[in-house]
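To illustrate the input format used throughout this study, we show a single complete record. The first block contains the structure-token representation of the backbone; no residue identities are included at this stage. The design step must infer an amino acid for every position from geometry alone.
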């Protein structure tokens, strides 16, 4: 029943330890910064997240490259050939074309290997929100869910995976088309920090504007207090753009206010960090909804 492999991509921002503990395969995505291209490995073997963010702070720009159909075929087909099935949990289709490439390859391989099962699932999630969905998928597999049952569970529950973000530098949102140039300028002068979430379609959407870094973090936590389900039973994920102290502050407040079971903190990798910038903070949990 459980002879299937769970795969995701490096935008899930899972730590090397978690990847090992979960037994999942993570496909590294490619990004360029300056004149160099790198693969976004979880163990930071080609470039550390700290060095990446330092280069962004110093004015370099980065671009990301989605995983190609050829790359997906090279990863999926050997698993199917070996007699195992595949379920791939992808970066939100609203933020990248990677899911669509995986879906097309899955369709082709399903025809080539009709005796095997292969699913590409749009997580409608980003960063450790995607990672937390992968974490729960592994727990469901351990409970004995078949690949079909897990696929159904992911579709039914992915919109309960709540994402709350704040950014330190509004100019990264301006470059990504999330904020006008005027709004970015005025917000920077006034010390405005946006609080954003990922909506039901997997899009990054501004929700509130608050003044000051601490207020933005506290606002994220208040949203969690309103919607989190059974926090004392939950693993909570927090990711950060080279802002570990602020991530620890969020973790301390979440533990204090909600008595959560456990918390995992990890850096936001360069692929997500290209678009969110240094100083980004994000909080992820299962809730009644994403709002």
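Output of the design step:
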């Amino acid at each position: 029943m459980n002879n299937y492999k769970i795969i995701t991509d490096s935008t899930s921002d899972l730590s090397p330890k978690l990847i090992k503990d979960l037994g999942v395969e993570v496909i590294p995505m490619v990004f360029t910064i300056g004149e160099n291209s790198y693969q976004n490995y979880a163990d930071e073997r080609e470039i550390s997240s700290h060095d990446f963010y330092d280069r962004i702070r110093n004015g370099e720009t980065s671009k990301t490259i989605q995983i190609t159909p050829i790359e997906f075929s090279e990863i999926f087909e050997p698993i199917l050939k070996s007699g195992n099935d595949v379920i791939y949990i992808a970066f939100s289709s609203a933020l990248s074309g990677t899911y669509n490439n995986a879906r097309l390859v899955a369709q082709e391989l399903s025809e080539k290997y009709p005796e095997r099962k292969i699913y590409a699932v749009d997580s409608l999630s980003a960063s450790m929100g995607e990672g937390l969905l992968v974490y729960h998928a592994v727990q469901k597999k351990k409970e004995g869910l078949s690949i079909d049952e897990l696929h159904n569970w992911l579709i039914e529950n992915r919109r309960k995976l709540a994402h709350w973000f704040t950014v330190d530098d509004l100019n990264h949102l301006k470059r990504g088309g999330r904020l006008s140039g005027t709004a970015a300028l005025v917000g920077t002068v006034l010390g405005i920090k946006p609080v954003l979430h990922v909506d039901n379609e997997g899009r990054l959407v501004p929700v509130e504007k608050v003044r000051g870094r601490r207020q933005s973090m506290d606002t994220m936590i208040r949203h969690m207090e309103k919607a989190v389900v059974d926090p004392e039973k939950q693993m909570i994920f927090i990711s950060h753009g080279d802002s570990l102290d602020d991530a620890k502050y969020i973790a301390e407040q979440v533990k204090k206010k909600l008595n959560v079971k456990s918390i995992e903190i990890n850096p936001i990798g360069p692929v997500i960090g290209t678009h969110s910038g240094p100083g980004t903070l994000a909080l992820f949990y299962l809730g009644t909804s994403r709002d």
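Structural context for interpreting the output: The CA atoms of residues 210 and 216 lie 6 Å apart. The longest helix spans residues 127-142.
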